[in-house]
Amino acid sequence: MKELLTDKLHEECGVFGLYDRGNLGDVAGLTYYGLYALQHRGQESCGIAVNDDGVINLHKDTGLVNDVFNREKLDALPGQMAVGHCRYATTGSKRRTNAQPLLVRHVKGHMALAHNGNLTNAAELREEYELEGAIFHTTTDTEVIAYTITKERIKKPSIEAAVLSAMEKIAGAYSLVIMSPRKLIAARDPMGFRPLCMGKIGESVVFASESCALDAVGAEFVRDIEPGEVVVVTKDGITSHTEHCNKKPRSLCIFEFIYFARPDSVIDGSSVHLARQQAGRFLAQQHPVEADVVIGVPDSGLDAALGYAQESGIPFDLGFLKNKYIGRTFIAPSQAQREDAVRIKLNPIAEVVRGKRIVLIDDSIVRGTTSLKIVKLLREAGAKEVHMRLSSPPFLYPCYFGTDIDSSENLIAYKHTIEEIRDIIGVDSLGYLSTDCLDALAPKTAQGFCKACFTGKYPTEPPRQTEKNKFEMKLSERTASEEDSD
Question: Which residues are catalytic?
Answer without folding.
Answer: 13
